[in-house]
Amino acid sequence: MKVLSENLRSDHDLTLEELRSLLSLTAQMKQSPVEWRDSLRGQYLCILFEKPSLRTRMTFELAVKQLGADSVLSMEPIGYREPLKDMARNLERWTNAIVARVYKQKTIDELARWGRIPVVNALSEMWHPCQALADVFTMQERFGDLKGLNLAFIGDGNNVAHSLMVTGGRLGVNVTIACPEGYEPLPEVTAAAREMGAIINVTRDAAAAVRDAHAVYTDVWTSMGQEGEADERRQIFRDYQVNEDLMAKARKDAIFLHCLPAKRGEEVTDGVMESPQAAIFDQAENRLHTQKALLYMLLAG
């Protein structure tokens, strides 16, 4: 098994070989969790959260404990009371890895620069790699081989869209982003994802995006820190709601994905959330399993 020795600052930090190893290990851990119960005994994780969280916080804390390790949580601005480089060099003396959910990617990069322990990006404005790992694992559970699957992401070309393009693209998943003008993924992220061999498209047409899609994905229209734009965004994104009519244009076996929390009635209807096509709670559960595999590959070597 490939053991990671670096950070997970973004999806670019995982090679294809590492991704495949991680997904394989995830399946093993999910099937036989007891076998891994004490595999990280004596390890300690530092969890730094600048943003509120349910799934990310709970799944990382549970992942650590289910592997026999423990964690310490801090929920306050990072680098506010003291320089970030000082903070990182303190934490490396006490703990074995840092998981950080932050407002700015620069915070992740600086923690990794100054600390000598692995740093995991649990969300930044640029990337959400841990979410993408659970997403592709959920698709693999449903459809088997990932290569050639089609994923349609409807809405803002945000951090989740970035991670899906890079992680999905590396594994051979064709990703189409349907978004309003001015809300596209960053051009450099799109270009990098296209170099990985899968088909990566950006379009204005949500109906065209979901045609032949195995998975239809959306996220909130207004993320934390964008609350002042909420009314404007509701108008701009009103034609990008994932509703029953849009889902009917995808494959009959298509699943619906959402990183949650969802604002029912905005980016997605309650009917889609409660439909048999919704795999959102499988997806949320898989955050736990993929993060257990990630932590093991980072810390067990």
Keywords for this entry:
single chain; 301 residues; alpha/beta; Rossmann fold; 2 domains; 5-stranded parallel sheet; 12 helices; 9 strands
Please outline the helices and strands.
Elements: H1 16-31, E1 44-49, H2 55-66, E2 70-74, H3 84-94, E3 97-101, H4 105-114, E4 119-123, H5 129-143, E5 150-154, H6 159-170, E6 174-178, H7 187-194, E7 200-203, H8 206-210, E8 215-218, H9 230-236, H10 244-247, E9 255-258, H11 270-273, H12 280-299
Parallel strand pairs: 1-2, 1-3, 3-4, 5-6, 5-8, 6-7, 8-9
Helix pairs in contact: 1-12, 2-12, 3-4, 5-6, 5-12, 6-7
In the CATH hierarchy, the third-tier topology of the largest domain is known as Rossmann fold
Q: State the end-to-end CA separation.
A: 10 Å
The geometry reads as globular
Q: Roughly what percent helix?
A: 40-55%
Sequence of strands across the biggest β-sheet: 7-6-5-8-9
Number of helices: 12
Major sheet, described briefly?
A: 5 strands, parallel
**Number of discrete domains:** 2
| Top CATH class of the largest domain | Alpha Beta
Write the element-wise H/E pattern from the N-terminal end onward.
Answer: HEHEHEHEHEHEHEHEHHEHH
Structural class: alpha/beta
Cα-based radius of gyration, to the nearest Å: 19 Å
Low-confidence stretches: none
Question: Would you count the extended β strands for me?
Answer: 9
% residues in beta strands: 5-15%
For this structure, what is the CATH homologous superfamily of the largest domain? Aspartate/ornithine carbamoyltransferase
Please tell me the CATH architecture of the largest domain by its name: 3-Layer(aba) Sandwich
Average of per-residue pLDDT values: 96
